[in-house]
Amino acid sequence: MEPNNKKEEKKMPSMINISEIIDALSNVEGVIGFLIMNKFGTIKHDALPNWVNLDKIMDFLNSLLTISNEVFQELRQGKVMKLVAENAEANLLISVIGGYIIAIITQKDLQIKLFEDKSKILILKNLNS
């Protein structure tokens, strides 16, 4: 009997269905806007208000995630999965899921969490309902 020299296959992450994310976010009252881009900075969907400077937002997201990942690696805590910023009027949720960066701006009283279920599906949950 020959030894099993088969290399273990690495599982590729399942594709995240962007249209499901767009539909879900578009139907949540209190979402001011959102942006979905891939890890290379290519915009997949932009639903931000028209007064927003898209280039500035993308630069901000890339810088914030780069610096945050460097800090987490320095602390030996892995990669950033989610960042949240709040002010008196709104929330900004930035999630990294399945190779995509999803930035969501919501009204202050709305809390949204994005969940990745076995890298297959994205589920939105309004914590206020």
Keywords:
single chain; 129 residues; alpha+beta; Beta-Lactamase; two-stranded antiparallel sheet; disordered N terminus
The overall pLDDT, averaged over residues, is 78
Structure summary, number of beta strands: 7
Q: State the end-to-end distance.
A: 61 Å
Largest sheet: 5 strands, antiparallel
Helix and strand string, N-terminal first?
A: HEEHEEEEE
Q: Strand order, biggest sheet?
A: 2-1-5-4-3
CATH topology: Beta-Lactamase
CATH-defined superfamily: Dynein light chain 2a, cytoplasmic
The CATH architecture: 2-Layer Sandwich
Which percent range describes the beta-strand content? 25-35%
Range of helix content: 10-25%
Task: Note the total helix count.
Answer: 2
Radius of gyration: 17 Å
Query: What is the CATH C-level name?
Result: Alpha Beta
**Shape, please?**
globular
How many domains is the backbone divided into?
A: 1
Q: Which stretches are low in confidence, meaning pLDDT under 50 for 5 or more residues running?
A: 1-14, 118-123
